[in-house]
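New to this. Help decode the following:
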Amino acid sequence: MMGGVMHIDEAAVAPVNIRVPADRSQVPMIRAIAETLAVLADFSLDEVADIKLAVDEAAMSIIGGASPDAELTVAFTASDEKFHAIIQSWFPADSSLVQKGFGWHVLQTLTSLVAVHEGEAQQNGRLVAIELSK
């Protein structure tokens, strides 16, 4: 943990870790990986749809606040009982994640857990993560 934000590289047994530019063009690929993992873990079709939409909303929320030229880091863990994701990026030091609006409501509705972790402000910004489980 660093200032309340989990470093994904230290996350326990996350079988899939992705690091891409924090750009909206990356979201379809991230969503497709989440869908594939959920299908392989035998989630129902409705649960797979919920997971895809939740991952999409979380990624778009993080990307929306990310610093220019930041990377988006994503860790997925999927088993027969639980899907878990951590999606994070660097935000400007004086910025926080917006946790309101329709997208945020959808994210809370589709998941069994949604948590925001914000690190301490540093010279290069603040690490912000959304953790979700289904």
In short: Residues 15-133 form a domain with the Heat Shock Protein 90 fold (CATH 3.30.565.10). The CA atoms of residues 57 and 103 lie 6 Å apart. Helices lie at 27-40, 45-65, 102-110. The beta strands are 16-21, 71-78, 83-91, 113-118, 126-133.
